[in-house]
């Protein structure tokens, strides 16, 4: 055991140093006991055996702990795992085993002493990470949350030279004896402390406390009862290295050498202890062994119950810390409110605001029956500058559904200052309308001013290789995929609105733009076909009937899809999620335990919305069929535009229309059968946490919502 202690002294880390010191104290204690109880010549061997048996049991338990039993040869010794988590788990498991076996009191006391002293530094560091130790200021080597970096990432010290503390990664794993609730909440509490410092540095939870709170093991009945009754437990005075008495006439510089004035070995015993001396390590162990109970009290009959009681203050503090940070994002009176930002994302990237949707449609789309120079185009720079209109003949084909303002330069995509001007005007005008509809308060006004600066349109750099350049063609369904809405949430709200979540909003925005493009293209077809005196196919009656039938079924499909996406997939999930945010503040049992659960719920919400719209990777088959069906409807509108402008002859367009109608029937048949197969698989085995409120209506969900679309698209589509 002494050889093991010597080898452990070369290891680094406060936990292994504490274990080495505790193990060394036990060895010193055993040597003193063996020296004090040396047998006399007239004592029988049986008496000697009984006298030393309890100390042999201690050494046997320590040998089993360190895998250095008497029957185990040295070449079979296993290296002791000196990592913090594994070492503490090993100590706890051995103590638990001896308590369950009703081992002698001295053995369990020695193991409890070793566990208590070894885990003290670990508990202090852990308490500091969640602000429980009374000092919530971050240490120099602790990790810092950056505004533009990952919020969970941890940086090195400011100068980059100081080594990282081994407790920086303590959140990755915990000793096996930690209660499951504490394991679940501690990582979030640590991150909540960092975010709370950034959100409200003067919060009362961050102020230094006059009484330093600690988490440590306690074993006596009176301390256990005090903790059970909520009176708190006073920390045990830690052992200190003994120093000899100093006389008043001694020189201050020689005081540190007074230990050499003592007789050899005298500083190990109790005989020299008085009110001027600190206790020796062995005396502290003796006192610990004397007060250690023979059994645990009835209120904590097992070591698991005692462990839960020891960690109860830390668990309550972590829960309070997480709920405090969450209230800063959900409380109506808090400076940082998550719900207005959620409403902003719902209104703009998901197009739930009628004012923004109508202005965006006016800027990007058109449902005109043909180019008319006298038609007002309010978003066009040409109308603002009163320039002459461009000639339609210069365009090769008419991109039906797109605004003529986007086609002025006859290039695609229409990037440039004029596009930025159009879209910036759309956002500013819709902000003015939304600001008038809200309550007249300075906080609301400040939010919309801040939101105007953080929300805007951006251009995406898409690939241009073969098969990936459809966005360069204004006739394609992907013509507007280069455009997306960019939102930069303020810190620390970026923990709830992460870049991954924003990318899901951008995918939905692209999908909605495609649907709006097809809707306006069909509106243009209705306008082009409304004249009964001048039909598009004046001589081919069958072709004209096919045109009207195709227009009807295409309009029915797009109308059903648009209503489903906006009302069921988006509204059925997001509206109830917003109601969930209000319910979290009203109910006694919160829906979200901390901000990280809320962030996961937000991500799961967008996953449900994407799944309901068949945009998840696992739904690639159904999603491709849906995209192809929309693309065929847009191709139909472009074909009608070619007939309207005279680019195609009547007989040419009739053959192309017949082929297009056949392909659309095939795509719709495959799509409806695919939807039915998805519905027949049944709902998910478990309802996600975000899929239901604690009371009231439930969210439509992701895969579960597909049944609504399948019911709307009846079996009639497979037989048209």
TrEMBL record:
The protein's location, in the record's own words, is:
Cytoplasm, Cytoskeleton, Microtubule organizing center
GO terms assigned for molecular function: gamma-tubulin binding; microtubule minus-end binding
TM spans (from-to)? none
Per the record, what is one GO cellular component? microtubule
Annotated Gamma tubulin complex component C-terminal domain ranges read: 341-678
Q: Which Pfam families match?
A: GCP_C_terminal
Q: List the protein's name.
A: Spindle pole body component
């Amino acid at each position: 055991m002494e050889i093991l202690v010597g080898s452990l002294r070369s290891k680094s880390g406060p936990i292994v140093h504490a274990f080495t010191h505790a193990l060394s104290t036990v060895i010193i204690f055993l040597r003193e006991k063996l020296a004090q109880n040396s047998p006399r010549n007239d004592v029988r061997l049986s008496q000697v055996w009984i006298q030393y048996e309890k100390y042999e049991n201690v050494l046997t338990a320590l040998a089993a702990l360190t895998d250095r039993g008497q029957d185990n040869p040295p070449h079979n010794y296993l290296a002791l795992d000196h990592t913090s988590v594994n070492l503490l788990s090993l100590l706890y498991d051995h103590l638990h085993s001896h308590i369950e076996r009703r081992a002698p009191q001295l053995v369990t006391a020695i193991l409890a002493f070793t566990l208590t002293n070894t885990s003290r530094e670990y508990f202090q560091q852990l308490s500091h990470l969640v602000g429980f130790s009374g000092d919530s200021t971050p240490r120099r080597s602790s990790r810092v949350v950056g505004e533009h970096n990952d919020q969970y990432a941890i940086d090195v010290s400011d100068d980059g030279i100081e080594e990282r503390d081994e407790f920086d990664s303590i959140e990755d794993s915990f000793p096996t004896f930690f209660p499951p609730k504490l394991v679940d909440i501690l990582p979030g509490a640590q991150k909540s402390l960092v975010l709370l410092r950034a959100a409200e540095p003067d919060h009362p939870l961050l102020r230094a406390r006059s009484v330093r709170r600690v988490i440590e093991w306690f074993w006596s009945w009176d301390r256990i009862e005090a903790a059970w009754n909520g009176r708190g437990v006073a920390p045990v005075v830690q052992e200190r290295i003994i120093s000899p008495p100093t006389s008043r006439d001694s020189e201050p510089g020689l005081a540190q050498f007074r230990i050499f004035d003592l007789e050899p070995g005298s500083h190990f015993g109790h005989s020299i202890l008085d009110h001027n001396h600190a206790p020796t390590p062995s005396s502290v162990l003796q006192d610990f062994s004397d007060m250690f109970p023979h059994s645990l009290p009835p209120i904590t009959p097992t070591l698991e119950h005692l462990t839960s009681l020891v960690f109860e203050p830390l668990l309550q503090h972590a829960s309070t810390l997480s709920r405090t940070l969450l209230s800063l994002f959900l409380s109506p009176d808090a400076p940082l409110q998550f719900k207005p930002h959620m409403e902003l994302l719902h209104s703009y990237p998901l197009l739930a605001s009628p004012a923004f949707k109508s202005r965006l449609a006016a800027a990007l789309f058109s449902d005109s029956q043909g180019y008319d120079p006298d038609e007002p185009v309010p978003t066009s720079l040409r109308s603002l500058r009163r320039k002459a209109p461009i000639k339609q003949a210069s365009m090769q084909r008419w991109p039906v559904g797109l605004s003529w303002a986007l086609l002025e330069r006859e290039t695609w995509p229409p990037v440039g200052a004029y596009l930025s001007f159009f879209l910036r005007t759309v956002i500013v005008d819709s902000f003015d309308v939304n600001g008038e509809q809200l309550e007249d308060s300075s906080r609301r006004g400040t939010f919309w001013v801040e939101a105007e600066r953080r929300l805007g349109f951006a251009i995406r750099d898409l690939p241009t290789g073969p098969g990936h350049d459809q966005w360069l063609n204004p006739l394609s369904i992907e013509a507007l995929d280069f455009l997306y809405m960019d939102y930069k949430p303020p810190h620390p709200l970026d923990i709830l609105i992460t870049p991954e979540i924003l990318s899901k909003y951008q995918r939905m925005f692209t999908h909605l733009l495609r649907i709006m493009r097809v809707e306006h293209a069909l509106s243009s077809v209705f306008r082009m076909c409304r004249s009964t005196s001048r039909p598009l196919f004046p001589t081919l009656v069958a072709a004209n009937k096919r045109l009207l039938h195709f227009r009807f079924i295409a309009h029915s499909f797009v109308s059903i899809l648009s209503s489903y996406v906006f009302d069921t997939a988006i509204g059925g999930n997001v509206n109830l999620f917003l109601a969930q945010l209000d319910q979290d503040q009203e109910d006694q049992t919160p829906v979200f335990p901390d901000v990280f659960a809320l962030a996961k719920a937000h991500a799961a919400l967008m996953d449900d919305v994407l799944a309901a719209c068949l945009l998840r990777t696992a739904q690639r088959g159904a999603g491709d069929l849906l995209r192809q069906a929309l693309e065929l409807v847009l191709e139909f509108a472009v074909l009608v535009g070619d007939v309207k402008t005279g680019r195609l002859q009547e007989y040419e367009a009739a053959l192309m229309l017949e082929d297009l109608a056949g392909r659309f029937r095939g795509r719709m048949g495959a799509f409806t059968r695919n939807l039915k197969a998805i519905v027949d698989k049944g709902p998910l085995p478990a309802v996600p946490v975000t899929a239901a409120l604690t009371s009231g209506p439930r969210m439509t969900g992701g895969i579960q919502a597909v049944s609504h679309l399948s019911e709307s698209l009846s079996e009639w589509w497979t037989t048209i």
